[in-house]
Design a protein that fits this description.
Elements lengths: L4 H4 L1 H12 L3 E5 L3 H14 L3 E5 L1 H5 L4 H12 L4 E8 L2 H10 L4 E4 L6 H16 L4 E4 L24 H8 L5 E2 L20 H11 L4 E4 L7 H9 L4 E4 L1 H14 L5 H23 L6
Parallel strand pairs: 1-2, 1-8, 2-3, 3-4, 4-5, 5-6, 6-7, 7-8
The structure holds zinc ion (ZN).
Zinc ion (ZN) binds next to loops.
Length: about 290
Amino acid sequence: MSDDWKKTNRTRQILAAAEEGKYGVIAAIAYNLEQILGLVRAAEQARSPLILQFFPWAITFSDGLLVRTGADAAHRASVPVAIHLDHAQDESLIRHAADTLPFDSIMVDMSHYEREENLRKTKELVAYCHARQISTEAEPGRIEGGEDGVQDTEGLLASMTTPEEVDAFIATGVDALAPAFGNIHGEYGPAGPTQLDYERLDAIREQVGGRVRLVLHGTNGFPPDVMRRCIAAGLSKINVNKLSLDDYYAHLKERVGTAPHTTIIEEGIAKVTAQTVEWMEICGSAGKA
Ligand SMILES: [Zn+2]
């Protein structure tokens, strides 16, 4: 099989440029149309690349409609926007998504399996996605916690990524790795993400040696300096959820019942755009598209 598609795959192109330019690209979750529009408008306003992400929930609740809508918005955008499936944990859903939906990349998340099984399944699914010109991401180790829209993995022990695991995962052919270095899904608590293990992150990056891109998960409540530190450590795909959606939810809370629905929608889109532009500036991707 020819690997030529890898040169034009949108996610790969966006992340290769980010790693080269030493900036981070926001990979933001969208749960609805307002958020899709708000995120794409942020990318256009900031002249930044963007990765628009969906959880498997976005496929199942609407039979893929939200994903196809996101792809339509991405393809019409005046800056590079890739469509990514985050935390796909179900093998049949991954095959269905790769076969029928316009994803540029898929996170093949088999981290709920024990290591050998995780590696075997990852390798098989990476090949399946690559055969359909879709690039991939995997999670060596296990990031703690859960997010709205991801299958519950409660009860599974989190485990930090080791540099030894990195080689085993790269051998699966995967395009990007999401290391567990103290980052968690969900909330860090009042002190913020103080438990991040930067030494481990440095060791992982050294072991990776530029062979695959590195992805940051679990950024809820990150202050800008922590974000910049993570990007300086070589993480180029920056998954965000609440960092781009907090203001939107606060807006709904305040305005529902007091303003016309169309106004609430338009103002909500503007909230997502404004908050996301700020993070694009912090991550250094603004002006790079
Ligand atoms: Zn995640």
